[in-house]
Specification:
36% of the residues are buried. Strand 9, helix 16 and strand 10 (332-333) form a beta-alpha-beta unit. The protein has helices spanning 35-58, 60-63, 71-78, 82-94, 110-113, 124-131, 133-139, 142-148, 152-157, 161-167, 169-193, 211-219, 231-234, 238-243, 279-292, 314-325, 334-343, and strands spanning 69-70, 98-100, 105-108, 201-205, 224-229, 250-254, 267-271, 298-303, 305-306, 332-333, 346-353, 359-365. With 369 residues, it is an alpha/beta fold. Residues 1-28 have low confidence and may be disordered. It is globular. The strands form three sheets. Strands 6-5-4-7-8-12-11 form a seven-stranded mixed β-sheet, with helices on both faces.
Length: 369
């Protein structure tokens, strides 16, 4: 979940727990850093992610939005201990989130700017949740999950993920905010690559606050939309719908997709939904969609898709996240999605790439020609 490692763009820095500093890599060297240096950086990325999460949660980027300030001034605004905040800022200066100036003053870099709450595609909510106990603590128990194949979240928090959110509104709000960013970001790549003109009504199943659906509706003026999720989730969707100026074409319906989904759509979108569930539950959700749609309908799954072989893919790390956070959730290969669709009375027709990491798994009723 950390930053990407690149010998050409990353400044190789050592942190305080190193026994001794690794030899510096010459600025003009064409050689790759030694394996030990690369591995050290990979191991320490978890620490960087935690520090960035605290920076984001405190709102330091917003405090620096108007220009450089000293650490004490920032600390007063974000309710932090000045000398200690300075220690955080100087560490993040070494990884390029802020730039340290004279007299303990700091300025945002292009990376730090992305942690402001008022910029387009802000990463603040996503960065924040990475360091919250909700997300972080289960990752500390990955060892046990690998031994047993069981969810770390269930062991650490004593309940399943979505049941936990229902009882912890602050964590649920943080999760919803982070997922809203994910939905909006994914929507951009999907809108740019997929042709929605054949459809008249799209039902976004498990659509959260509507970030994905509103972006699709905004780009396709002919399209009607139905946002469907649990009552507590869709309650926060009104702002996104009105901001996108699609309120006249977007209906909000609440319910449980294990029981039923709204009828009347000719396209059913599930964005980052199926990967939360084991095969049997995934088939049940897909089956509800199949039952609600006409024989001319279509299901679109916006998901990461694992490669069949050793090709590098972020989906592999995301799959570990599903192991840790869910009870049986997983990322899947094309063949595995095909099997799910077959069991639900659907036929996988193609997998459509996007401009980002996400893919659209397209399926139609098996009875269709």
């Amino acid at each position: 979940m950390g930053t990407a490692i690149s010998s050409k763009t990353h400044r190789w820095v050592e942190v305080t727990m190193a026994v001794e500093e690794a030899p510096p890599v010459p600025a003009n060297s064409s050689t790759e850093p030694p394996p030990a240096v690369v591995l050290q950086q990979l191991v320490r990325e978890a620490l960087v992610a935690q520090a960035i999460s605290v920076f984001a949660r405190l709102g330091v980027a917003d405090a620096l939005a108007t220009g450089p300030r000293d650490a004490e001034e920032i600390a007063e605004q974000v309710n932090a201990h000045g000398p200690t905040l300075y220690r955080l800022l100087r560490a993040l200066g070494d990884v390029g989130v802020v730039a340290e100036l004279e007299n303990r003053r700091f300025a945002l870099t292009q990376f730090g700017e992305m942690l402001r709450s008022d910029v387009p595609d802000s990463l603040r909510d996503y960065a924040t949740i990475i360091g919250l106990p909700l997300h972080r603590d289960p990752w500390t128990d990955l060892y046990k999950s690998i031994q047993t194949g069981e969810s770390a979240f269930d062991r650490i928090h004593g309940t399943k993920f979505f049941d936990y959110l229902a009882k912890h509104p602050e964590d649920a709000a943080a999760f919803d905010a982070a997922m809203a960013w994910v939905s909006t970001t994914l929507a951009v790549s999907i809108v740019q690559t997929y042709d929605f003109t054949p459809f008249n009504t799209m039902v976004d199943v498990g659509g959260g606050r509507g970030g994905m659906l509103t972006a699709i509706l905004a780009a396709n003026p002919h399209l009607q939309g139905v946002l469907f999720d649990k009552p507590a989730v869709v309650a926060g969707a009104e702002e996104a719908i009105f901001s996108a100026q699609v309120a006249d074409r977007c209906k909000v319906v609440s319910g449980d997709f294990f029981d039923s989904v709204p009828e009347g759509g000719d396209a059913y979108l599930l964005s980052n939904v199926i990967h939360n569930w084991d095969d049997d539950h995934a088939v049940q959700i897909l089956g509800r969609c199949r039952a609600a749609m006409p024989n001319t309908g279509c299901v679109l799954l916006a998901e990461l898709v694992l490669p069949e072989g050793p090709a590098p893919s972020m989906a592999k790390l995301a799959d570990l996240g599903m192991l840790i956070m869910t009870s049986g959730g997983r990322e899947r290969t094309e063949a595995e999605y095909r099997t799910l669709c077959d069991r639900a009375g659907l036929r996988l027709t193609r997998i459509v790439p996007s401009t980002g990491l996400i893919r659209l798994v397209e399926a139609i009723p098996a009875s269709s020609s």
